[in-house]
Amino acid sequence: MIDTILFDWDGTLIDTAQQAFDAFQKTFLELGAPLDFPTYERIYSPNWYRMYEGLRLPRKKWKDADDLWILYYTKENSGLMPGAITALSELAHRNYALGIVTSGTRFRVFRELDAHGLADVFRVVICSDDVVHKKPHPEGLEIAMKKLKKRAEVCCYVGDMPDDVEMGKRARILTIGIPGRYPSSRNLEDARPDLFFDSLDEFLAEFLPKPVHSC
Q: How many CA atoms does the CB half-sphere of 164 hold within 13 Å?
């Protein structure tokens, strides 16, 4: 029985898609590599270094790109995905162990968690700073399970991208796909998650056991 739900952050619980693109566009323009949306859709990856390679950005500029993206990104605020607060509140009420495994940086993710009053909701938060290997390598999920002292068979991972599904499968846990607004989300169902829902509201309604009413 599943008692632990690990979530991706960007695009799954928080709606950062437009904000992320705007920050990338400003960043690459400043670095002399203009980025239009069709190109962004084609090269997008939660592993930014794949995008840098796709734009043929010299490796010596990668650190500058990271720093500029954070600078531009943090000038705006993102809202949570529809249904996120309701889903997290209900899951916490039912005593599920909740966690986050994300490609985002710890500074940025905790800043957003604090801004939305979610800092105390999750028992574990694993960010890019905490791993050597990026998605879809299962290291982040493995660290989260170890910290929670949970076995794979009682855990699931909820994400909006094919890399999330692959990471969950490589960690041998149940995978749940819920599409967001990032470009690669359109290929989410093709990645064959174990369960697929159109929204967090549908996930909450269909995934959770129904209460038993006595006569």
A: 35
Separation of alpha carbons 194 and 126, rounded Å:
23
* Helices and strands (DSSP H and E) totals, the chain: 9, 6
Structure tokens at 198: 């159109």
Domain ranges of the chain: 4-15+79-207, 17-73
48 confidence band (pLDDT: 50, 70, 90)? confident
Q: Using DSSP, state whether 147 is helix, strand or coil.
A: helix
**DSSP per residue over 23-91, as a string?**
HHHHHHHHTT----HHHHHHH--SSHHHHHHHTT--GGGHHHHHHHHHHHHTTS--PBPTTHHHHHHHH
134 touches 47 (CB < 8 A): yes
- What is the model's pTM? 0.89
CATH (one of 3.40.50.1000, 3.40.30.10, 3.30.1380.10, 3.90.1720.10) for 4-15+79-207: 3.40.50.1000
What tens digit of pLDDT does each residue of 56-110 get? Answer: 999 999 999 999 998 999 888 889 999 999 999 999 999 999 999 999 989 999 9
Number of other residues whose CB lies within 10 A of the CB of residue 144: 26
Give the Cα separation of 152 and 16 in Å (integer): 29
